[in-house]
Amino acid sequence: MTYRDYPRAQNRPPPLIDLIPDNRDLLDVSDEEDSFYGKDDDWLISPEWQATIARTTDRIPRRIKRYSAVYLAVAFLFLVSWWTYLGPRYARYKQDLRDMDASPLLSYGNNVRPEFKGMIQVSDMDQQHLPKKHSRLIFVGDVHGCKDELEDLLKKVDFNHKYDHLVLTGDMIAKGPDSPGVIKLAQKLGASCVRGNWEDKLLLSIAEGRERHLASTSGPDDSTELTLDFLDDESNSHGDNKLRKLAKQFTKSEVSYLQQCPVILRIGQVPNLGSLVAVHAGLVPDTPLKRQDPFHVMNMRTIDLKTRIPSSKHAGTPWEKFWNHRQKKLHESERTTVIYGHNRKRGLNIQEYTYGLDTGCVNGERLTALVIDGHGKTEIVHVKCRNEMGYNAD
Amino acid sequence: MKLPTELLLLALTHLASCATLRPRSANFASVRGLTSLSTDHSSNNDVLRPEKYFHESTFHSHYDGRFAEAQLPPQTRAFHLRLLLRSYMDTMDIIGIRTWIMHGCLLGWWWNGKILPWDSDVDVMVDERSMAELGNWWNMTVHHYTAKDLGISAKDMEKPKIPHSVEDQKAHLRKLYLEKEVLRKGKKYLLEVNPHYTNTSTTDRHNVIDARWIDTATGLYIDITTIHVAPTPPDPRDPSSPSSNVEDEDILMFTKDQHAYSHYQIFPLRRSTFESIPVRIPYAYESLLAEEYGLESLTDTWYNGYGFDPDTHEWVIAEPTEQQSKELADREAMKPKPKPKPKERPKPEPKPSPKLATGTVVAEAPHSTGEGVHGDKAGQLGDGRWPPGPGATTKA
């Protein structure tokens, strides 16, 4: 018995379903045809394509499909950043690599290296100082007259005069409180040194003053004279009063110690590290040590990759980047590791073939030592500067 | 009553001539005893540039017309330039004047310690104190150098082969004659100081050279310029106090030919040798060269018809090698197109400035203004606006 047959239903209004008009003949759809269950026909995309799209999109989980807008936004952001920032950066990086690999003919270093009076270009460290079982090599960056800190540092690394050897990588003097003290200490310990830009300036000024002095007195150089009295001469004042004041603090033996500091100090072969070289500022790759320009060795910070001309400016490609890149191209036995200072802004800067040690002690930061033992193991040791404000704050 | 009128007349004529008289270099009549010439070959600038002190020759701006009637044959010019430089450095050393080489010389020194073959002059600088000493004590002094003093003997003279063409033979004979003269009589050098050296303003355009060291046999000379300390601008917060506490680094210096330098670029001076003569070199020599001639001047081994031989380390006349011309062309292509300049300045002597067209051999083009206008625009001051003007105090 159906509902309609139910007698009490007869008087009732017709069920609502009957009120729905049945426009069967208007609607041209029949659920008996296949197309009723098929997908809507899209005239823009051919069915094969539609099938392919369906096949692939069906595989993507719904959860992911839901976030497609976010993905689009991210992709767009990436594109924009590529166009504006990453792309040019990448291009520059590629260009740098190309420049570093190229070897142009018209580049720096074709000239004959200028020869200077009173300047030693390259010398070798005494091979007996090379690190052995119990002895170590200790490199200290720009001391700048911070004698107390140097003493602290030597105590911290447990420096033993008998076994260990100290190498100062230039700029031992100037700016700080006790420049002559540092040199005295270096002499006492028999330390090796290289000529930094400040030693260079000081020695040149002293040489100039001495010449003037000789020219005016026209007597032979009084070699017994211990101090550099002639620097009192007003005659050589040329705006460089500070330098003159500094020069006057030194005795003759200290000046002759500075004089024997070479621009480039060849340390020698150390196991695991290969051949080591100490300079004050940096070196140009692929140029023999004998032909390096001494001014740049004492002053460079960056290098122009196109012309290979070094510069003392901070902006540009750091020379050590170029150096490391070129060392990796060389045969292992020809690679050289450079230990240097000079670049306080970069601070401690250790890379595979370069060790930058200037940590700005005189400015109130730290004094750094690189300790190399007989096995070629390296260790970095710091001490804090005693004067937190730095010595040349005034 | 006759005498006073005559005296008055005499005084008047004297006054009249005085009105147009300006200091200028010793005239031909006064150097008669020194020169071998019978007529003056100086260019006459009395009308065009009456305030100019030194007068170059009519035929080339790097010769003194009172002592030369023609240019030297190029084969012997370097020889006489070397002697000129040696005698100058030697004299300055003896009389205690601090002097150093600059410009084209410095570039030659940097490349191989020798004078560049296309360079026809020598540039040196002195400081203010030294210039005053030269002016006060050594002006118009003649310094005699024998062949021995100059370090030459008959043995050193190469036995040259006689050239074929008549032109070359003439030059060759002249060369031999001049060299014989040096051996026989030595050389006399004249130090002449421009009295305008006390005027340190760069607006004094015609007297940018402060002194000259002149070879009285050939008319070649060395230009001596003074380096001045630029007046420090007063502190804007406290204009009354002169800013005295300036670090060396900050001291600006300039020369009258409108080059600006920092104190630390020049001082302290280095000692080196140039043409095996002991000379002084400015402290930051390479930065000076890069500023004046561009970085290319330190890298290019081919310039202006000359190539740098990597084996002999000499500049020799050469065609650029394939690799060189390729790299030069590549660089030319990389360069951004320069904007057309409103006014083209006359190009000075062929110095290794990269802006000079590479590929054309510039041979001894006499330049229009005379007194060494040096190289490039780089490192030069503006158009004479600074220091402020004539009479500005420059001693800090």
UniProtKB/TrEMBL annotation, chain A:
<keyword id="KW-1133">Transmembrane helix</keyword>
<protein>
    <submittedName>
        <fullName>Ser/Thr protein phosphatase-like protein family</fullName>
    </submittedName>
</protein>
<feature type="domain" description="Calcineurin-like phosphoesterase">
    <location>
        <begin position="136"/>
        <end position="343"/>
    </location>
</feature>
<dbReference type="GO" id="GO:0006798">
    <property type="term" value="P:polyphosphate catabolic process"/>
</dbReference>
<dbReference type="InterPro" id="IPR004843">
    <property type="entry name" value="Calcineurin-like_PHP"/>
</dbReference>
<keyword id="KW-0812">Transmembrane</keyword>
<keyword id="KW-0472">Membrane</keyword>
<dbReference type="GO" id="GO:0016791">
    <property type="term" value="F:phosphatase activity"/>
</dbReference>
<dbReference type="Pfam" id="PF00149">
    <property type="entry name" value="Metallophos"/>
</dbReference>
<dbReference type="InterPro" id="IPR050126">
    <property type="entry name" value="Ap4A_hydrolase"/>
</dbReference>
<dbReference type="GO" id="GO:0005737">
    <property type="term" value="C:cytoplasm"/>
</dbReference>
<feature type="transmembrane region" description="Helical">
    <location>
        <begin position="69"/>
        <end position="86"/>
    </location>
</feature>
<dbReference type="GO" id="GO:0000298">
    <property type="term" value="F:endopolyphosphatase activity"/>
</dbReference>
<dbReference type="InterPro" id="IPR029052">
    <property type="entry name" value="Metallo-depent_PP-like"/>
</dbReference>
Automatic annotation (TrEMBL), chain B:
<keyword id="KW-0732">Signal</keyword>
<feature type="compositionally biased region" description="Basic and acidic residues">
    <location>
        <begin position="324"/>
        <end position="352"/>
    </location>
</feature>
<dbReference type="Pfam" id="PF04991">
    <property type="entry name" value="LicD"/>
</dbReference>
<keyword id="KW-1133">Transmembrane helix</keyword>
<feature type="region of interest" description="Disordered">
    <location>
        <begin position="322"/>
        <end position="396"/>
    </location>
</feature>
<dbReference type="GO" id="GO:0016020">
    <property type="term" value="C:membrane"/>
</dbReference>
<feature type="signal peptide">
    <location>
        <begin position="1"/>
        <end position="18"/>
    </location>
</feature>
<feature type="domain" description="LicD/FKTN/FKRP nucleotidyltransferase">
    <location>
        <begin position="96"/>
        <end position="234"/>
    </location>
</feature>
<protein>
    <recommendedName>
        <fullName>LicD/FKTN/FKRP nucleotidyltransferase domain-containing protein</fullName>
    </recommendedName>
</protein>
<keyword id="KW-0472">Membrane</keyword>
<dbReference type="GO" id="GO:0009100">
    <property type="term" value="P:glycoprotein metabolic process"/>
</dbReference>
<dbReference type="InterPro" id="IPR009644">
    <property type="entry name" value="FKTN/MNN4/W02B3.4-1"/>
</dbReference>
<dbReference type="InterPro" id="IPR007074">
    <property type="entry name" value="LicD/FKTN/FKRP_NTP_transf"/>
</dbReference>
<keyword id="KW-0812">Transmembrane</keyword>
